[in-house]
Amino acid sequence: MSEPSFDLDLEQVEEILPRYAIEGPRYTSYPTAPVWKQSYGVAEFRHELGREDIDPADGLSVYVHVPFCRSLCHYCACNKVITQKTELAARYLDVIEREIETVREAVRVPRLVTQHHWGGGTPTYLEPEQLTRLFRMVSAAFPLAEAAEVSIEVDPRVTTSEHIAALRESGFNRISMGVQDFDPKVQEAVHRIQPVDETAALVDESRAAGFKSVNFDLIYGLPYQTVESFDRTLDTVLEISPDRLALYSYAHVTWVAKQQRGFERKDLPPADLKLRIMLHAIRRFLDAGYRFIGLDHFAKPDDELSQALEARTLRRNFMGHTTQAGVDLLGFGPSAISELRGSYAQNQRELGAWQAAVQDQGLATLRGHSLSEDDLERRWLIGRLMCLGELRAEDYAKRFGRPFGDAYSAELSRLDAMVADGLVIRSADGTLRMTGLGRLFVRNVAMVFDAYLPEQQKTGQPMFSKTV
Which domains does the chain have, with CATH numbers? Predict the structure, then answer.
């Protein structure tokens, strides 16, 4: 695939920014979570797990949510439990063992796991022996395929040499580190003091231990960030040279993360400065040899994400961009989401509610959504835009048996302004190709194909972060 060009006219970008910097989904799922209902519960999830119209050769993906953190990062909107009470983690392990066993018993067609991922919270809040116990639980119930991707998110501030050794011994081969920003003033504002030396040492130790991929997460749009200050962070990041980079836009969602309200009295960069920071970072990554994977992901050319992009097998799910196209996902732990071929199912969010539900029923399904034929079709459309930056009419016709331009004439007409603004190139048959400028606003383009969004927007209730 050809690389998108980000040699953009900054004045043009800033001129159209007010029209597109609006609230919108990130499309880690379609339909998005606000559409899901509590009428989908444990019985529906059990039924979905018990489907037999599945090829045993198909892969499976597993996600484990470890919710605990030792301190609160003020930008964070993830589901977490801030605690120093280690007994909570011990009880969590007992409960998640029951959840894993229940799901395994309900699954009628066992499959090997091709992707195994832990997130949080802070998974390395757990002690090394607890990490080993949890991994054995999961892999005993859902064995790993040969050459499976086994990854974990860690906080360098609490991750020790003993953690690294336990993770590698278990079989983890990818490690993702939260960095966000190395600037001391920004770190103080977001309540996350993380020295460069500490992070670099953990990278060196991970590589020496045999992790084949080290990834960094960065955030732009945080308090006190400037192009110059973030450039210094980029100098350090590129010197360390992680294999993958995620450049996330700070999501100011105070109705979810109340601690963010303090930022409104601080120095959040305005939209035009936030845009300049993002563009500068993208250019630096490209100049350093990283490939733009999509939305907020970058990878070295020999990385599996780059290869999946080239092979058009890239997919997007709750873990971001992934190589695991067409793979069902089982989620364990509080708030975890399962994405199966016929539905989505989300666990109880609160730790206590999740524990009580699992102890009572073995499962903790809070809400979910059974996918209609229209859902499946639109999910495919949105996935092509988000992952590949294009939507070919001929691919649609082969898959769904009718002309794309006829089936989505109304949606295509709503793209007129985006075509005029240079975000999208639209062919006569309806084929859409995102420009470099359009890749910055891909969420806006995808929103045109979201059948549920118009009703959600009518409520006036905040649901999503800003698209840029």
Answer: 18-23+372-458 (1.10.10.920), 35-370 (3.80.30.20)
